[in-house]
Amino acid sequence: MRKINTRSFVRATRWTPREINLQILLNLVREHEPISRAELARRMKIGRGMVTYLTAELIAQGALYEGDTVDSPRGRRPQMLYVRTQDRLVVAIDIRFSSTFVMLTDFSGNSIALDSFDTIPDREALVRELQARVRRMLAEHAGARHCEGIGLVVPGMVEQGTGRVLNAPQLGWRNVDIRGPVEAALGIPVHVENAPIACALARMWLGQRGAAVPTDFVYVTVSDGIGAGVVVNGQVVRGQTNSAGEFGHVPLTADGPTCLCGGHGCLEVYTSNLATLCRYLGQDFSPSTARALLTSSGVTIAEVVSRALAGERRATDALQETARHLGAGLAVMIKTLSPSQIIVGGEITEAWEQLAPTIRREIGERSLTDLAAETPIVPELASAYPRLRGGAALVSAPLFAAPRIA
Amino acid sequence: MRKINTRSFVRATRWTPREINLQILLNLVREHEPISRAELARRMKIGRGMVTYLTAELIAQGALYEGDTVDSPRGRRPQMLYVRTQDRLVVAIDIRFSSTFVMLTDFSGNSIALDSFDTIPDREALVRELQARVRRMLAEHAGARHCEGIGLVVPGMVEQGTGRVLNAPQLGWRNVDIRGPVEAALGIPVHVENAPIACALARMWLGQRGAAVPTDFVYVTVSDGIGAGVVVNGQVVRGQTNSAGEFGHVPLTADGPTCLCGGHGCLEVYTSNLATLCRYLGQDFSPSTARALLTSSGVTIAEVVSRALAGERRATDALQETARHLGAGLAVMIKTLSPSQIIVGGEITEAWEQLAPTIRREIGERSLTDLAAETPIVPELASAYPRLRGGAALVSAPLFAAPRIA
DNA sequence: CGAGTTTGTTCTTTGCCAGAACATTCGCGC
DNA sequence: GCGCGAATGTTCTGGCAAAGAACAAACTCG
After folding, report:
1. Taking the model in full, what pTM does it have?
2. Which of B353, B402, B401 is closest to B379 using CA atoms?
3. Interface test with B, best of A206, A335, A404 (most B CBs within 10 A)
């Protein structure tokens, strides 16, 4: 049951049914390709004539294409339909504290080329560098294919609509327009999004064919901070001030270490990679000094994870402690949102086999119901480049989104 | 951007635009009544002819009615339209631990008659008592008007669709079908809902005319426990297992008092009315003994609140402590959901002037941004019977809800 | 009392869904 | 090789609702 917003509704016109049915058809093809017109007619419970009519428009638009006919037990051989994704390109850009990644993908998020460089603090220089690298990448790998958009992912709050980066502490950006300069430099439409939300969008829109796509889930990113992209009723939760999903600053205890946010005992001060590293080094976590300490020590989270996998006690202990607190944090998400699953991303997922039992136990101890305790917790490896896939989703998803009506 | 669920979509038919536009029109009349056809045409950006056509159907359905013509500076006098709510009745039932309330209202949630009795532990006897009281109430007050539904509100988890009460600890109900027996006893369709969600629905659907209706907010109920009804993107958040919104069991600190849920330091053990009362009596809170202690002492939360209003130091101190922890709890909601406002219901709101500064200060200390710190916190007095209004909303809201398409 | 203005109704046109009819293409059996 | 049945895909006609013009109604003002 959804309320109609009478201040910003979209009334139905004579073309509305067509818009809706075109989108349903496109999504059905996407999830069941290859699929014939007759099969689509059965699934949508409309006549085959209607399907011919609708597909003709989608083919003319370039959204679908016809493949070969295939064998069938009897009768005329059906002609299969596919979504045109392979020759429609996206450049996904992931700007992080230390490195910036650029990936060329198709509309399905399949990687074509990958590039990375040290993040340049000066913003104008960064845009120039991006311009050069994206142009080179397109020249070398695009061929005749067309790049239809750039999906830019940043570790921070992004204003919906304008694409303005409101606050990205790791980059030191406050109220920065990154979309404008990049769009001007490359002449391609740019979409900007917060990293955890982008990861969630990738899960929602670029999921495996045939896999049940969840409509209520949380994507938790464990890196220098803890972020979360929350999806409820098939839509991302942004909240009034674009700051929803800040589970990283939910306190686990009132008298814990001080966090950068000014609070005490935030989830983040126990479970971020910085916290895990400090623990590994035997140092108390202090948000102001952690970064300096770690650059001087030279140890990275990837190293701690691989040492834990190799069986080094100090590393496994540090990670177990992280897992304990992470479990407590995930329990809060389960209580407040009751998601159908939680996806965890970040370097520590490489050691998931060590972490999972501890996380599961902590959740079990804190769950209100047995069903809640069984909420699937799914790791996503950093090697799948979830942020970059999210960037691809930013560009390709609007093609498949439900039309905004009423 | 919303994803189309290809497993349970509703395709658009030839009548879909009509359905959508009828609902938009109905909602516009509701929020701007009295309103003329010409004004509706301007707001919907359609021709007046179309409005005549659509209103004719709504009038035939009995959803709208024509009022008198009114003066206008020049030209033909417009004929005003109204939503027919006054002669369409709802029986709202609120079953609580100690008392059960029955209210007869119209479709706008306006009270016509109110009745209450001690909650009967035996379920069959309770249903018989409800049957008798509802019948008497309808006989005495309904007149020629028709009761179109019963909205039943319970303090516990309710399964969407079946109306089954999965777990209501205060009533000792587990997996109870209350809808079936009441429907059978009275022959009127029954809708069952969890109390905090019902309160949120009342806010969303029975808000004041002309007032901006928020599409992202949280309704927090402070009573024997802490509950929350969460609305995101104009829809209630239920989650996978109908257990979303359990902010009452989010821990504020890891080593606090033990809660009934088995956790430690839950928001509920600091801020529920039981906790406040124990604090007032100078007793440590223990969930298992609290209820017995309070029945023996005979003090109620309403008394503590009135003593605080009278200036009794022990009472104001107890409430201030509650407000401090409640502020910490609300800060968690603001961080995770970024709502446009939080509504607080319960007896303690009578002392809101004492509580508000403390709550505001605690939220301010814990907010990530200035905007978040300014999130409006709005009290709703118990005298407004929010649960019963929620019961009314359960019946009347579906009439106004957006059609389910795509 | 007529001109001007606004409201509300009626009527025609246009576009899309719905469903029947038709064309196409295959396997199978004689 | 040819007819038949079956399934796919296309075309055509009908009906309904939106769009918008034309018209009727009702009021004010000079």
Report:
1. 0.90
2. B353
3. A335
